[in-house]
Amino acid sequence: MGWIEKFPESQHGPIWLEAFESSYLESFVKKISPNLEKLIETMRLKKLKKSLRNLVHCFRLFFVLMSGRNALEETSRKFGKN
Q1: How many domains does the chain have?
Q2: What is the rounded CA–CA span in Å between residue 45 and residue 37?
Q3: pTM of the entire structure?
Q4: Which of 41, 69, 63, 70 has its CA nearest to residue 55?
Q5: Could you please report the per-residue DSSP string of 31-76?
Q6: Range(s) of the domain holding residue 11
Q7: Are 22 and 30 in contact (CB under 8 A)?
Q8: What gap in Å lies between CA 25 and CA 28, rounded to an integer?
Q9: pLDDT tens digits, one per residue of 9-52
Q10: Residue that wins the pLDDT comparison between 36 and 1
């Protein structure tokens, strides 16, 4: 601790504060790291689910449009308008 004696007393506070904050942040990061990994995995799953929902929506839309097209073609055939 002799090195701290070389600094003016007015600078002791900021040095101790920085050391405390650094220690706190390191402890905090260690505590939340497992939760961050879970959060990242959850976000990946949500993104995947959203992509799958969009894909299903596209398929539904495609089949609805094809059904409408088939019905229109059938109607045209019935009335002789090809």
Answers
A1: 1
A2: 12
A3: 0.42
A4: 63
A5: HHHHHHHHHHHHHHHHHHHHHHHHHHHHHHHHHHHHHHHHHHHHHH
A6: 2-78
A7: no
A8: 5
A9: 777 777 778 888 888 888 888 788 888 788 888 889 999 999 99
A10: 36
